[in-house]
């Protein structure tokens, strides 16, 4: 393992943000199978494990922050566009096209910034606040580095019309605090957008369990569940999202949700879109490696076996009882909530 010091150790408001550039020496190496074993890198801004670079500012969100992860997140963005479909749901058009005053949008947990960049192109009259990582810097986008949720205090109350968070539920152990901060920052009439996976697998094929359909993916997702619990992430919040929003202050009749499902193995993995879905799934599963190993639920050999089998299942080569295409019968639920502040 390597660790790297950086002259820029500021933290980003996108807890799972990527594309961060770092500086320092590659010469400090310690023999270790993974970072949880025998090297304290707590004072290093970045460290390298198994040829992947990680940001040490967040222990809960333990995904890589290298160029490979940037590409994965951008690919995932386009996969998600097809399943939602589109960039958003809810009254976003009506809110952002109201020219009675200058509108503002905040993206919390922006990843690479690709969602917000596309929003800024559609609504060029809106001001955007984001840790934008893409090369294209639009005039209506402001780059700020803050640590959510506490760093969001730099913004005044009721200062945004739209706040977006996606895939943050498993990225922080302070999700309720994030939602509370978003409520405080929303103007009356503004909308909070949440897009989250449940990370639970369900069988759509009668007479088969998920273990019959995709045994290795099932095992790997069980490891990931253990990793989240180890980090204090409340993985059950997905089923209580409406309750959380009401407790935060949103009126129950101002909350709407769109549920949708994604197959572990796409219906046609040989099309361009299907191939991108497969690649996104495989790369996502591998990106969980460090956080799974650090929690001790399995060792490297156990992870490698589960990952290798999962990669085959995602591509339509399952060894499960249901046959090679069994993973097509495994569904991953997603929820998209929008809540208007009154």
UniProtKB/TrEMBL annotation:
GO terms for molecular function: methyltransferase activity. Signal peptide: none annotated. Residues 1-36 are annotated as: Disordered. Residues 23-34 have a biased composition (Basic and acidic residues). Coiled coil: none annotated. SUPFAM superfamilies: S-adenosyl-L-methionine-dependent methyltransferases. This is Methyltransferase domain-containing protein.
């Amino acid at each position: 393992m390597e660790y790297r010091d950086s002259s820029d150790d500021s933290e980003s408001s996108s807890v799972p943000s990527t594309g961060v550039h770092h500086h320092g020496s590659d010469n400090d190496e310690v023999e270790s199978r993974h970072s949880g074993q025998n090297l304290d890198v707590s004072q290093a801004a970045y460290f390298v494990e198994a040829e992947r670079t990680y940001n040490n500012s967040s222990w809960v969100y333990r995904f890589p922050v290298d160029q490979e992860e940037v590409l994965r997140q951008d690919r995932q963005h386009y996969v998600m566009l097809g399943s939602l479909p589109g960039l958003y749901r809810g009254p976003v058009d009506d809110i952002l096209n109201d020219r009675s005053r200058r509108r503002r949008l905040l993206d919390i947990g922006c990843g690479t910034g690709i969602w917000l960049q596309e929003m800024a192109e559609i609504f060029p009259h809106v001001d955007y606040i984001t840790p934008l990582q893409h090369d294209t810097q639009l005039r209506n986008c402001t780059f700020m580095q803050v640590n959510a949720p506490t760093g969001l205090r730099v913004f005044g109350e009721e200062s945004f019309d739209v706040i977006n968070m996606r895939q943050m539920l498993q990225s922080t152990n302070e999700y309720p605090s994030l939602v509370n901060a978003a409520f405080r920052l929303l103007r009356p009439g503004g909308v909070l957008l949440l897009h989250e996976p449940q990370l639970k697998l369900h069988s759509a094929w009668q007479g088969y369990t998920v273990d019959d359909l995709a045994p290795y993916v099932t095992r790997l997702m069980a490891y990931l569940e253990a990793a989240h619990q180890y980090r204090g992430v409340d993985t059950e919040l997905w089923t209580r999202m409406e309750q959380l929003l009401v407790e935060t202050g949103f009126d129950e009749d101002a909350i709407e949700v769109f549920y949708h499902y994604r197959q572990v193995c796409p219906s046609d993995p040989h099309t361009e879109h299907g191939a991108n879905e497969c690649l996104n799934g495989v790369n996502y599963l591998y990106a969980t490696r460090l956080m799974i190993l650090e929690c001790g639920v399995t060792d490297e050999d156990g992870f490698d076996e589960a990952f290798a089998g999962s990669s085959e299942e995602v591509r339509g080569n399952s060894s499960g009882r249901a046959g090679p295409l069994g993973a097509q019968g495994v569904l991953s639920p997603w929820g998209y909530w929008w809540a208007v502040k009154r």
